[in-house]
What does this fold into?
Amino acid sequence: MNEMYAPTVAVADAERGETLAKRLILRLLRQLRFGALVIQDGTQRYEFGEASAATSIAARIDVHDGALYREVLLRGSIGAGESYMEGHWSSPDLTLVVRVLVLNM
It folds into this structure.
């Protein structure tokens, strides 16, 4: 393989993996039944669940690096936590994010 071509292929494969992981994670989040979760990923905004009188919890995640999706898909909550520490995502209120996710376990 051409040495100039190899890094390009590796980047393309990583991007495809992140895209697939993102689609799968977003599909899973459609199952949220309690509380609301908004994911802001660049210019894209995804909304899941809905806050109701019984569960008026609403949380937001701001994605800074698409590696978040791959980490969550492959490593679950551990991947999400480590991805948070690495700065792949943030939230104005991390406790609310955890509460929404725990409500839907």
Observations:
- The helical segments are 6-29, 67-85, 94-103.
- Strands lie at 35-41, 44-50, 58-63, 89-90.
- DSSP finds three helices and four strands in the chain.
- The first strand starts at residue 35 and ends at 41.
